[in-house]
Amino acid sequence: MSDLESEFSLNVVLVHFKQCLNEKEEVLLEHYLTGWKGLIRFLDRLGTVFSFISKDVVTKLQVMERLCSGPQRDHYSSLQSMVAYETSNKLVDLQRRSRHPDSGCRTVLRLHRALHWLQLFLESLRTSPEDARTAELCTSSYNASLAAYHPWIIRQAVTIAFYTLPTRKVFLETMNVGSPEQAVEMLGEALPFIERVYNVSQKLYAEHALLDLP
Fold first, then answer.
1. DSSP string over 128-192
2. By mean pLDDT, which of 15-19, 49-53, 116-120 is the weakest?
3. Of 59, 64, 118, 126, which cross-links 187 as Cys (Cβ 3.0–4.6 Å)?
């Protein structure tokens, strides 16, 4: 059974995002990518509605795994070392996609944007009342994050698809950590780590003017 086919557990995701940052606040790519694999398993358990995100994320994870295991793998141990290596060696397409369409910097940026959406959505699930409509929570999170990078036709299709989402209770049960109340508690523990990883990554990309890579 592959990493992406094994059972989802929020606790496993929590462990890897906890380990994402070292004492220097460097984002360790091995744990980042493994944490994302766990999030993909969560999305896949919810059906095809999130396939527009999960399929793209799986492709990006495959790109990063090739870089992390390739001949230059020493430069891909952390997000910071990757950015330093690719920018100093002009391995990033800054204006338009040309010679380096699958650079690590561009690939992680797409994962970074998707992580922001998922972070916002899970936080809204955690803090919302029991009768909250997941379609509205997901749409609000999407509009505050990924929507800015999608064309109009995708935004419309995605928003319509969100109305097929299960209830908040089903979402929380899908976390596979016990009751909905236990899932809410664990989200409260996990999301600050995900948010911290996001914020460190956002700051790094902003410092190197990489937030708008084509």
1. S-TT--HHHHHHHHHHTTGGGGS-HHHHHHHHHHGGG---HHHHHHHT-SSSHHHHHHHHHHHHH
2. 49-53
3. 126
* Nearest C-alpha neighbor of 113 from the set 156, 142, 92, 155: 142
Nearest CA-CA partner of 108 in 197, 5, 25, 192: 197
Its pTM stands at: 0.92
Token pair recorded at residue 68:
């992390």
| Residue tagged 């509009």 (tokens) | 143
Q: pLDDT band at 53, cuts 50/70/90? A: confident
Q: By C-alpha distance, which of 47, 43, 30, 32 is closest to 4?
A: 43
Q: How far apart are CA 153 and CA 11, in angstroms?
A: 36
